[in-house]
Design brief:
It comes from Virgisporangium aliadipatigenens. The protein is α/β, with parallel strands linked by helices and about 400 residues long. It has 16 helices and eight strands. It has three domains: about 210 residues, Rossmann fold; about 80 residues, Helicase, Ruva Protein, domain 3 (Orthogonal Bundle); about 80 residues, Orthogonal Bundle (Arc Repressor Mutant, subunit A). About 55% of the residues lie in helices and about 10% in strands. The chain is globular and about 65 Å long.
């Protein structure tokens, strides 16, 4: 069939042609926005799940929902070893710019931008001109507000002032944080404290975070009340009906059909993970000679999809690991009962399989967690952050 008409989109954070199986999450966020608009108290949100389940796509869709209600909405992607100050300042600058044209008192906006500038400039501990933050804000920094140098105090004050702008307009502000598990512990604690403070006052500002499955545990480790502070939503693989819809709805718009057995094969191959659904769907479309697409078409196309995943999805991650870390990963793959979120492996079992003391493997484990290849959901266990990664590793020749 014509590859130009191929509707499937296996890209990082790229919205699929049919966002299937996420209606519940969209409805929940719509209720959150409506409640805040009516002055009702609401919690911030946290989306947690493996890589490839569509967290970034969902985060972007929720941001679009906020925009549609004329909220100010900024987004950042957290990175390890990076302070939150500059990214948060840039995101809130973007959010307030959305609201500024509607505000009747320009001086209020300028006052906030001065506070925002002071907050961001505290990210330059050296004081050197070359390291100074240049945000493109044409007002002078305001001294004495959100510039103490204590991230917890400063974030509370900054969020409070941003929420005040939204209150003036009868709207809200949302800060979207992708890869939230990479936020530094002190910054994560400050985020919790700021959300806690605003939730008590009913201020119209919320944080919507997305991260790996252990993100709720990281938040709980920083502030015990975080278990009640956020509304947690586990983002998982698609069920069979939703996975079929993700494939058939775009195809129908191109006057193409799938045989039931073809959908059986595609669900078996993809496991219902949205990224894999798109990858196998795209390869199958390109190989199928005509409509309807058959099970034989899927079987012919599967090796190409798997080869592409092996290079771009699995291989690129595996290449980031050192030889010692790869040995750890391969041991995990042999011991893992499954390749999904339930496939946790005891670290003691890994040590036994490698005939090493657990303490000697801690550097490899910690490095793999930092690189986002594995996570520790429960004490003494680790699991892959990438679905089917264990299956990929078991198929690779031993180095």
């Amino acid at each position: 069939m014509d590859p130009v008409r191929n509707p499937y989109a296996p890209g990082a954070g790229q919205r699929p042609p049919e966002l299937a199986g996420r209606d519940r999450e969209l409805e929940v966020f719509d209720v959150v926005l409506e409640r805040i608009a009516r002055g009702r108290p609401e919690r911030s949100l946290v989306l947690a799940g493996l890589r490839g389940v569509g967290k970034t796509v969902l985060l972007n869709t929720l941001r679009s929902q906020a925009f549609s209600r004329r909220w100010g909405a900024g987004k950042i992607e957290a990175r390890p070893d990076q302070s939150l100050r500059r990214p948060v300042a840039a995101a809130l600058h973007m959010a307030i710019r959305e609201l500024a044209p509607r505000h009747r008192v320009p001086d209020r906006i300028d006052d906030f931008l001065g506070v925002l500038k002071a907050f961001g400039q505290k990210s330059n501990p050296t004081g050197k001109l070359r390291d100074r933050w240049q945000p493109g804000i044409d007002v002078p920094a305001v001294a004495g507000r959100a510039d103490s140098g204590d991230i917890e105090i400063d974030l509370v004050e900054l969020f409070t002032d941003a929420a005040a702008i939204a209150t003036d307009l009868g709207t809200g502000v949302a800060l979207f944080i992708d890869e939230m598990q990479d936020v530094a512990p002190d910054d994560l604690s400050a985020l919790c404290a700021a959300c806690h403070e605003l939730s008590q006052t009913g201020a119209p500002l919320i944080v919507v975070g997305a991260g790996l499955p252990h993100l709720p545990a990281l938040l709980s480790a920083q502030k015990s009340y975080s278990e009640r502070l956020f509304r947690y939503q586990r983002i998982d693989r698609l069920d069979r009906i939703s996975a079929d819809l993700a494939l058939t709805a775009p195809a129908e718009r191109e006057d193409v059909e799938f045989e039931v057995k073809a959908l059986d094969e595609l669900y078996e191959a993809s496991g219902g993970y949205p990224y894999f659904v798109q990858a196998y769907g795209k390869a199958t479309w390109d190989h199928a000679p005509r409509s309807p697409i058959t099970a034989a078409d899927v079987r012919v196309a599967a090796p190409e999809a798997e080869a592409e995943l092996a290079v771009g999805f699995f291989g690129s991650r595996y290449e980031r690991a050192t030889p010692a870390e790869r040995e750890y990963l391969r041991s995990m793959a042999l011991l893992a009962p499954s390749d999904d979120m339930a496939g946790a492996v005891p670290t003691a079992e890994i040590a036994r399989s490698l005939e090493r003391k657990p303490a000697s493997l801690s550097p490899a484990r910690d490095a793999l967690i930092k690189k986002g290849l594995i996570y520790s959901g429960e004490r003494g266990t680790v699991a892959f952050t990438v679905p089917h990664f264990g299956r990929y590793l078991r198929s690779q020749p031993t180095e």
